[in-house]
Design goal:
six-stranded parallel β-sheet; 409 residues; Rossmann fold; single chain; alpha/beta; 2 domains
Length: 409
Amino acid sequence: MRKPKSVLMVLDNYYPPDIRVSKEAGVLIKNGVNVYLICWKGGNSLEWEVLDGLNVLRRIKIKGFRKIWSMLNYYINFVSPLWLKELNRAVEEFNVEVIHVHDLPLVKTCLKVAEKHGIPVIADLHENYPEAVKDWLSTDKSFKSRVFNFLLPFRRWRNYERSVLRSVSRIITITEETAEHYVRDCGVPAEKITIVRNTDLVENLLNSRLYPDIIEKYKGFFTVSYIGGFGPHRGIETILKAGSLLVEKIPELKILIVGGGGPAGYDSTLKNLVRELNLERNVEFTGWVEYKFIPSYIHISDICLIPYKLSAHTNDALPHKLFQYMAFSKPVVATRTRTFTRIIEGHNCGLLFPSEDYKELAECILKLYKDRGLAFKMGENGFNAVREYYNWRDDERRLLDLYHQIFRG
């Protein structure tokens, strides 16, 4: 990459935050690439802002007639006229040489633009998107969700995935399991796929600022934490039900739920369940917090949880928080999925339980509460695993190797 190259990243969301986008963009910027990110515009946010060297172009205004018109077109052929216009504009304005699109929905739109300008498209697939849609829509019963499901059912998403992924230049995905899916179910040649995992630089995490007020607040508790987005497929109800079995056995129990989101009213559903289980004294919801506070919440935790409901989507998922937990030497208790089994059981850095089995989850937590030596050893194993096997340095190298190949043509 001797002369400056120009890459356009595409994110069907607002930015910031998106950890994966910022890490990948940071790698390219550090290596002399000009990176532009086109994303949603929200509220009074700036249309163009430079954040850590990343040119953020908030050009997609998601309201009014233009939004409805663009959505209707997308429902018909998976191409968004609104995005198509802004992507063409950005490619021409910044002499873009590669389009790097995050997640499946806008891949076909990006392919249309790339074909016009004779440039490659990299599809960066954060998850098995059709299966994720199935999970989301199975639990969201709103009118909007029902309309979306009628117009874009799972079958259409699966067919769309198969058709567009054969046309992109390269695919980036997060795990060996998702890579197998694209080869087996979508007919993508294995050599087109690069695995860039949701890892972190251990050194950066451990050098994060810790906030004394958070640390002081939870002194004296045995803290079991879930950190992340909300939604029925995340399995937070399983945590609460397990808590109801633990309050008499762990007097100092604090169940900390850090995050938010999910379908409308879902947080109220969780809080109602807390009241039904008489856990008001033991459960705390922090609401959504800034990313800078997350290391402090992990630091004060005795056990960290990932209690996903098992599905074709979650079976291959690999969230950032797993490696963040491990970097802070915390034992992890998670659902027995394919990916979690390979990593957590493979490195003996936590315990696994069957999906939605709150009794087994309670037993796992109780085992680590009673055996602090085991908990310490599993936390130590997790730290060693992220230091040696699951460190962003390795994923950064794979990303750079991919871009070297793309730029060489």
